[in-house]
Amino acid sequence: MKSMIKYTILVTTVLATATLAGCTDFLDRNPNTGMSDEQLFSDYTTAQAYLDEALFNLDRQFDIDFMNNNRSHNSQLSDECATTANAGSNGVGQYRAAFINAGNWLLSSKTSGEWEMGVNIGGKTVAGRAGTSIRVCNRVLEYADQIPGISEEQKNYLLGQAHMMRAWHYFELIRRWGGMPIMDHVFTDKEDADLPRQTYQGSHDWMAADIDAAIALLPDEWDDSNYGRPNKVAAMAFREMAELYAASPLMQNDLESTSVKPYNQERAKKAAQLAQEVLDYIESHSENYRLVGQAGDSWSREWIYWWPNSLLARNPEHLWFNRKQNEIGGTGGIRTFCLTPQGTSAQDGANAAYLPTPTLNIINMFDKKGEDGIYYPIVDSRSGYTLENPYKDRDPRFYQFILYPGAEPYGLYAVAVKANNSYAPGYNVAANSPYYATTFVGGYDYQKFLTNQYTNIQSTMQTSFMHKKFHWEDASEKSGGGMRNNNYYHRTIFIRVAQIYLDFAEASFEATGSATAKIENCKLSAEEAINILRARWDLTPLASDIVNDPEAFREAYRRERAVELFMENHRWFDIRRWMIAHELFNPTGPIYGVDNSQFSGTSPIWGMRTELKAGFSIAKPTDITWDKFTYTPYPMTNVIRNFEMRNYWYPFPSLEIASQTNLKQNPGW
Fold this sequence. Notes:
Blueprint: H1 37-40, H2 44-56, E1 81-83, H3 97-101, H4 126-143, H5 152-177, H6 200-217, H7 232-247, H8 265-284, E2 318-322, E3 356-358, H9 360-363, E4 368-369, E5 375-376, H10 396-401, E6 402-403, H11 444-451, E7 466-467, H12 473-479, E8 492-496, H13 497-512, H14 526-536, H15 544-547, H16 550-564, H17 571-577, H18 581-584, E9 606-612, E10 629-635, H19 654-658
Antiparallel strand pairs: 1-3, 2-8, 4-5, 6-7, 9-10
């Protein structure tokens, strides 16, 4: 059988006789092409190595340019992050997200490599890697029975992975473009591959059968030499996540329409029941999987996002993930993705440019504790929120996830900050002394934005915030590497335990319309699922009036999801499947989680300008205290977010449409 397209194959002739337990990691093998089907399926080992191409093609959300993203991150497409990177609307240079923010996504070339939108088969984009991977999986599914000497267990392992990976890569397509043709076999040169698209529901149902097959075939655990392959709980978690997507408003549209629809309540009910099955499985396998950081756990909650310098290190919260990242010090390091606070980095140039900056929009979603000891949304008068001291008594996740002006010492300064130089706010700091965030006007971090050649044009678009979620000091110490060197791997997590509770809460509520009702065969209500997560962070349960008000509870579970899963590649897909993106990005509309009477302007993306009050000065880092500053929310008018109803689905390139009879373009394109 000949390939329709030349594909990269993660296997070499030398590796044809290598064992998976050998010294070469199965995700580090060198690519090669041109092996015949007889060679590829001559034994279990070579077939498994070939299938590993589908694993290799899994997204690495923090690797620079792995999906042609350059230094852009998915968070910069939603309301999670703004950017300080210098780039035009064409998205060249450091900020490819600018192309998507501009809203006109229609490409001409079907071989385009544009980040997120490109469909270059065999290339670096999501669609290109998905197309390659689905074909690989189809070949394995076709040939598994013909492999000489394969045992029943080995065949089940191959088939289980192939079903799982085919479904996941297909899911990556349909949650962007909507329903796709059924891709259930390898097309030959003589076949007509111009197939009609399915609706999202039709695509989902075919994909769900794949996931169910994977659940039945995959092992509970792999041995250490195969750690990172999908297992049973990964497939179960994916199954419930996929069902929740299928229940969501956007996915109720057919191929002709893009309008706001209600949830499919039957699918939502099924999603809740599937999520309960995952929770039951986790409970019965608590030695391997659990919410990290609960009372009595040997893992602290600060380790939820622990990125160790050993690829084989396990984290009980992680269910489905891509453990493959580039080597330490390579382009896949988190430093080079530009998340490291600038004061803790000794790097220069692009590697010292801090690019994705958390917005005030996301900051405003963190609750605040009121005088009665209960945590409320900041727009609730009971929270006592004021702009005089906006960071007092906030949700504990705020202090772990976000660096704000005057935040507690974090890491160490990489270089000496001397008084009166171009970076200093007027104090001397020795290298290796405790680092304080200085994103206020005139501060060290603020000035770094002004002087770095990669951020100096967009420097006025600073939000006053930087990331701490993936960089807290103890994680680096735990990994055995220094904060400044970022000597640790950054694993891409697709699904973790907390998401199962969030998915359950959404599905249960949208199926019943009640936060307190329990679905058949489910042990929890939506309220209870949310409060389990809040309890881990020492947050009080949701206030009873919020629980009893359906609209308030919907806002609450969505706010909880935005905070807990901040910058974990969910928000962009959530605001689209909920069909709220056109409201969030409407310059004249309300800002989600923000009181318009307090915050008003012409942009949906907000920052917080932080300035020293008149008569105050800073002589040393410990002088950076909240009372010395004024806090002024401001609309970031230069941060583009053009989003229309047509933007809920990605368009197919115009030449792709022109070349095929049955491929229907998405509405509005």
